[in-house]
Amino acid sequence: MRKALEGVKEARKNGQWKDDPAWLPVSEKQPDCNYLAIPAQFSEKINYFTVAFLDKDVIASNTLYVAPDPDGFAFSVIETSTFTSWQDFVRIRLEMRRRFSNTLVWNTFPLPSITKDQKDLIIEGGRKVFEATANYPSSSLAYLYDPGNMPLDLRKAHEALDKEWIQCSPISPKKRRGEAEGAFGGLSRNGK
Description:
The chain is mainly α. It is built from eight helices and six strands, in the order αββββααββααααα. The chain has helices at 2-12, 73-78, 81-90, 102-106, 116-134, 141-145, 152-168, 180-183; strands spanning 35-39, 41-42, 52-54, 64-67, 93-94, 97-99. β5 (93-94) and β6 form a beta hairpin. α5 (116-134) packs antiparallel against α7 (152-168). The N and C termini lie far apart (58 Å).
């Protein structure tokens, strides 16, 4: 093992990772700041995405999308039921599990024009969702977001965030999660 680490150290000596310890894996996507971690796959059974903020020293694996999110806006958007409905509309799947994509899901999400005040309210709603998950430090996000286990305070935080989102969204508040096909202004998956 020592010989392998010395070889890595020597190879890195003049490269862009010359100041990193030899044992630290190299990742082109590793942020140099705290970041929002978005798993590439989500259970088809949950109603909201399970994303988390991670410290810059936590190495992002190849199964994570990462994004700097200093104000929490991206977290707040992803945590809305509208975003989950968009994911279902786009229908990127791995077997039955939802599969996130920064190009086909995030970059195509119909983000409405919002005022600074609306953005602040959405960020505050996301902060309350984050705080509700923090109330259960010994529970995983997978456990918390299982519909049969979701704590009432977390559910209410999501409902409040959705209410703030609906105020600035072009999508009718009468549309339910299961009506993703009709919820996006007549868009269809096959372009017709």
